[in-house]
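[recover] target loaded
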């Protein structure tokens, strides 16, 4: 019911704040430690897929808080997810909490501020509540279906509503495009890394711009946190974000927030495919996501407007 959902939202927001503060305590304890030789992380699948004590302890805290309050709900967390479990197992119809205790683990280990906790509540496969808290940045993003998306509980998202149309015909001029590198470092000519570099070049290149159809992108970014990418698309700071290789905990809270802010999510490759891609009903379980920021009332089909 509405009331129950409201309670879940309030609980998730408080839990996000508490978990983020815990993360920040871990980060502070590390100030000055760089190079001390202390074992800060261990490797999972490869040398860039890492886990820290902060990931594990924050997940344990979030998991036990949820289980205490909602003992019948299912819990999926990045660190408790067991390798080899079938992907079908992940998100079903039942009420499910999907949590990344520390998104941007590499950033965290370098004390690069782009890291956050991400908590989503999913019903019937739909991300309904999303909480993302980046404690170093003091940015809290929250959303609940039907109640809008918010920054620090006071500013409604998107903050910026111009200037591009929501589904540009090709890489739109004047936008900021964000793309993550993921963790796959296998260097094959047609592999992930190469395709990403290629799409970066396509987006950045002058070709395709200045012909009245596209235009040069203003900038290309890689934050190192897929979760914060979503939040920044919802804010309007990023126009487009794309990544192949995400897991449910990387995207669930971000999807709830972006959808509530009026943005679009699809599973496609930029820039060629996104015009024809199906936008409705993003299926959690895909690895590939493309997010497009909310359009504003000042957007037009043909061109950009500046404020
Ligand atoms: C990762 C980050 C990274 C993205 C990866 C994610 P983690 O999450 O969001 O930017 O490229 O796909 O798995 O491991 O830091 O929680």
């Amino acid at each position: 019911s509405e009331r129950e959902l409201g309670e879940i939202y309030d609980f998730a927001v408080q839990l996000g704040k508490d978990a983020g503060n815990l993360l920040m305590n871990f980060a502070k304890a590390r100030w000055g430690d760089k190079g001390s030789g202390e074992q800060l992380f261990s490797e999972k699948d490869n040398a860039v897929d890492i886990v820290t004590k902060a990931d594990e302890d924050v997940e344990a805290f979030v998991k036990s808080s949820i289980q205490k309050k909602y003992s019948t709900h299912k819990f999926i967390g990045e660190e408790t997810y067991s390798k080899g479990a079938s992907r079908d197992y992940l998100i079903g119809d039942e009420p499910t909490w999907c949590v990344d205790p520390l998104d941007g683990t590499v950033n965290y280990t370098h004390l690069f501020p782009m890291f956050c906790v991400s908590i989503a509540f999913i019903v019937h496969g739909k991300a309904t509540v999303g909480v993302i808290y980046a404690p170093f940045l003091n940015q809290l993003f929250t959303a609940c279906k039907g109640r809008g998306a918010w920054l620090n509980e006071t500013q409604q998202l998107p903050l910026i509503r111009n200037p591009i149309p929501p589904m540009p015909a090709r890489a739109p001029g004047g936008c900021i495009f964000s793309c993550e590198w993921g963790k796959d470092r296998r260097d094959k000519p047609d592999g992930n890394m190469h395709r990403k570099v290629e799409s970066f070049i396509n987006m950045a290149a002058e070709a395709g711009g200045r012909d009245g159809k596209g235009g040069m992108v203003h900038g290309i970014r890689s934050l190192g946190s897929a979760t914060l990418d979503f939040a920044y698309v919802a804010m309007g700071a990023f126009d487009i974000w794309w990544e192949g290789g995400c897991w449910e905990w990387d995207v669930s809270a971000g999807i709830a927030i972006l959808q509530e802010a009026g943005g679009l999510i699809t599973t496609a490759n930029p820039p060629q495919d996104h015009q024809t891609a199906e936008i409705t009903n993003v299926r959690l379980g895909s690895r590939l996501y493309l997010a497009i920021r909310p359009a504003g009332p000042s957007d037009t089909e043909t061109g950009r407007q500046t404020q």
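[recover] notes: Helices lie at 2-30, 53-69, 105-109, 192-204, 226-235, 248-261.
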